[in-house]
């Protein structure tokens, strides 16, 4: 699918889409609980749909009502010996240890970008927990056989926090007096989100400096009601759109959220945009924008919207944390450099630092998403202040996290033409 986004002034109000990070965790917790859980404001992005299908294959019954989903479970009791996590990195890294709670041999697969993302962690760590595990040279598909037996282990958290999220969620159902130690953990706020979600479903973990995670007495997940928060990762694109091209109010954003990408607000403020935070809304308005410095090591998904912002800021913006981008849906440092380069914006990659030379004018161009939702959205936002229309190829990539994105951009005054 091709989408053309033309320059436009942004003005209006929009409600943030549901967070896929929160939704996928809630689906996993509801699967691990015994009884009926209600998930309100459920997400319908491809990653969320994949999580629902995985939960069903692992034994949950799901009733989809218009306003909420009911997930009834009796713990992990697989119906099939195969699960497919679609393109979700979190999905596969979270559901693999959870599936390993069962003694059934299970094949775990995915498609698209997920087939190139590293999974060798499981081959190293799961055998320490008495789970057999093979991969195809560190990639999909995985073949596992549990049951997982929690043990005191030390793991490396530098590649991705998602493996730890999976272990924490699985340990929560069975662990007793055991500690996971993590070295060099990255994306820490995502672990805070995992612990917060687990606590909401009745499982508490004692955390020390994001290095030690201790499970005391045996606990069990409690079925309950959960409302999925608005998504700061997706909303970051709308907030940047307003900061560079007008003004907007984004609703259903918890400004006290544990989501890491709430950090977009700091960069917006540093760039000179006007930001007004309510409890569940953010108002944002354009002003003279200047280059800024930030460290996105722990919020790597902010790179694409930060680049769209920086392209509109006079001067050279410095963003730290590029090394976190190599194993996302695309190698995002390189992809941003290539696609923004087509729009006339120079990006230099110097080790772990990205330099965006902004304020030089964004040019009309044809760009490609590389099947990466956040690249498609960043290009769409950049198009708002370009000197002509920007054509985005493979624009349907947004469905992974934010199927409503082009509609929301239009709702705010964006000129978006979707070619079938
Ligand atoms: O736990 C999560 O929901 C996520 C964690 C982050 O991954 P890493 O921990 O690999 O940085 C983030 O990039 C991803 O989009 C979602
Ligand atoms: C990297 C992402 O997700 P995941 O790792 O869950 O596929 C993302 O949403 O940008």
From TrEMBL:
**Where along this sequence does the record place binding of 3-phosphoshikimate?**
20-21, 25, 160-162, 187, 301, 328
Q: Which residues form the Enolpyruvate transferase domain?
A: 9-409
Q: What is its EC number?
A: 2.5.1.19
Q: Which reaction does it catalyse?
A: 3-phosphoshikimate + phosphoenolpyruvate = 5-O-(1-carboxyvinyl)-3-phosphoshikimate + phosphate
Sequence positions that bind phosphoenolpyruvate? 20, 89, 117, 162, 332, 374, 400
Q: In which pathway does it act?
A: Metabolic intermediate biosynthesis; chorismate biosynthesis; chorismate from D-erythrose 4-phosphate and phosphoenolpyruvate: step 6/7
Which residues of this protein are catalytic? 301 (proton acceptor)
Alphabetically list the UniProt keywords: Amino-acid biosynthesis, Aromatic amino acid biosynthesis, Cytoplasm, Transferase
Q: Name one GO molecular function term.
A: 3-phosphoshikimate 1-carboxyvinyltransferase activity
Name its cellular compartments: Cytoplasm
Its top-level enzyme class, in one word, is transferase
Q: Does the keyword Cytoplasm apply?
A: yes
Top-level lineage group? Bacteria
Coiled coil where? Answer: none
The protein's matches in InterPro entries, at most eight in alphabetical order, are given as: Enolpyruvate_Tfrase_dom, Enolpyruvate_Tfrase_sf, EPSP_synthase, RNA3'P_cycl/enolpyr_Trfase_a/b
What assembly does the database describe for this protein? Monomer.
Membership in a protein family: Belongs to the EPSP synthase family.
Function as written in the Swiss-Prot or TrEMBL entry: Catalyzes the transfer of the enolpyruvyl moiety of phosphoenolpyruvate (PEP) to the 5-hydroxyl of shikimate-3-phosphate (S3P) to produce enolpyruvyl shikimate-3-phosphate and inorganic phosphate.
Name assigned to this protein: 3-phosphoshikimate 1-carboxyvinyltransferase
Tell me the organism. Chitinophaga nivalis
Q: Which gene encodes it?
A: aroA
């Amino acid at each position: 699918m091709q989408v053309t986004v033309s320059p436009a002034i942004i003005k209006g109000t929009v409600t943030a889409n549901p967070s896929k990070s929160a939704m996928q965790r809630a689906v996993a917790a509801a699967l691990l609980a015994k009884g009926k859980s209600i998930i309100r404001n459920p997400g319908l992005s491809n990653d969320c749909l994949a999580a629902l299908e995985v939960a069903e294959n692992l034994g949950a019954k799901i009733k989809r009502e218009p306003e909420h989903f009911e997930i009834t479970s009796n713990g992990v009791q697989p119906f099939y010996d195969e699960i497919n996590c679609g393109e979700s990195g979190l999905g596969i890294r979270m559901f693999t240890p959870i599936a390993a709670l069962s003694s059934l041999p299970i094949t775990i697969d995915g498609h698209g970008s997920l087939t190139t993302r590293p999974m060798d962690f499981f081959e190293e760590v799961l055998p320490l927990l008495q789970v057999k595990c093979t991969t195809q040279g560190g990639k999909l598909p995985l073949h596992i056989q549990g049951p997982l037996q929690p043990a005191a282990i030390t793991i490396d958290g530098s590649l991705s926090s998602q493996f730890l999220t999976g272990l924490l969620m699985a340990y929560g159902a069975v662990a007793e007096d055991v500690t996971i130690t993590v070295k060099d953990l990255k994306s820490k706020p995502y672990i805070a989100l995992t612990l917060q979600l687990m606590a909401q479903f009745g499982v508490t973990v004692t955390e020390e400096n994001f290095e030690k995670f201790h499970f005391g007495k045996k606990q069990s997940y409690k079925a309950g009601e959960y409302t999925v928060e608005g998504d700061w990762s997706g909303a970051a694109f709308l907030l940047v759109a307003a900061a560079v091209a007008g003004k907007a109010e984004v609703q259903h954003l918890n400004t006290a959220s544990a989501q890491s990408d709430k950090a977009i607000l700091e960069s917006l403020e540093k760039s000179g945009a006007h930001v007004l935070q309510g409890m569940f809304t953010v108002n944002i308005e354009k002003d003279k924008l200047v280059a800024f410095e930030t460290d996105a090591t722990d919020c790597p998904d902010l790179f694409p919207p930060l680049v769209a912002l920086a392209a509109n800021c006079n001067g050279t913006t410095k963003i730290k944390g590029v090394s976190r981008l190599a194993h996302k849906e695309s190698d995002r440092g390189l992809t941003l450099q290539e696609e923004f380069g087509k729009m006339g914006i120079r990006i230099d990659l110097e080790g772990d630092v990205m330099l965006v030379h902004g304020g030089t004018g964004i040019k009309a161009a044809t760009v490609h998403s590389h099947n990466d939702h956040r690249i498609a959205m960043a290009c769409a936002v950049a198009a708002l202040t370009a000197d002509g229309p920007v054509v985005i190829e493979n624009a349907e990539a947004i469905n992974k996290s934010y199927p409503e994105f082009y509609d929301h951009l239009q709702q705010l005054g964006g000129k978006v033409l979707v070619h079938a």
